[in-house]
Amino acid sequence: MIVKLSMKLKLFAVLALAGLLSACMSTSPQLGPDASAWSDYLSWYKVTPQAETGDPTGFLGSVHDGRNAFRQIYVNSLGQGVNQGTQNLPYPEGTILVKESFNNEAALEARRSPDLTLMIKLASGESPETGDWEYVMGADGTRRGTGDSGLGAFCRDCHLFAAGHDYNFINSAFYDKNR
Ligand code: HEC
Predict the structure, then answer these.
(1) DSSP secondary structure string, 26-90?
(2) How far, in Å, from the CA of 86 to the mean position of ligand 1?
């Protein structure tokens, strides 16, 4: 109970900060591939059997467009084995996870302007501060967060709750546990 409460408080602090910092959060130089690397993500393996809504992990708060959003996650061929049970975590270098967030169900059905957030697995040691993940905001790939950048720290500080699963909240391990 106490542990849960302190996590909630921590999350609250993260969210309060997000509100204050989002306008001026510092980004970092690009380390992973250009946006062309995920232009065909709709043909990738879909990690979420159906769109997620609400807060299935309990860690969402108001990010990723909040509880009312409908969210889908895709993984490229390098990382898909982890979600098909043929490969163990951690995800291999070059893995790209794309997360679409639609404002509501109607937007999902019409595929209307999803917000994209991404995680790109870098080479070991490239960004230890972020678990060697490059966090990306937006389909165009211009806003990247690694190292001690504000954006990298913002994403990392919450994804840290899933550090035991290579900073990933939703993957096959999550579904196995909650089946
Ligand atoms: C306050 C917590 C929080 C913050 C901050 C956050 N995320 Fe997430 N993220 C989540 C949760 C929870 C999920 C699980 C999916 C869901 O519930 O929709 C998730 C899922 C993801 C996924 C799919 C892989 C996975 O872990 O399930 C990607 C990609 C992602 N987030 C990228 C980002 C990026 C990029 C940022 C920073 C711009 C960010 N996240 C900031 C909580 C957070």
Answers:
(1) ------S--GGGGTTGGGSEESSSS-B-S-TTS--TT-TT-TTSEEEEEE-HHHHHHHHTSSPSS
(2) 24
Range of the domain at 117: 2-178
Ligand 1 is surrounded, with C-beta below 6 A, by 11, 14, 52, 56-57, 59-61, 63-64, 71, 73, 97, 99, 117-119, 135-137, 154-155, 158-159, 162, 168-170
Per-residue pLDDT tens digits for 24-60:
799 999 999 999 999 999 999 999 999 999 999 989 9
**pTM (2 decimals)?**
0.89
What is the domain count for the chain? 1
Q: What is the pLDDT of residues 135-145, one digit of tens each?
A: 999 999 999 99
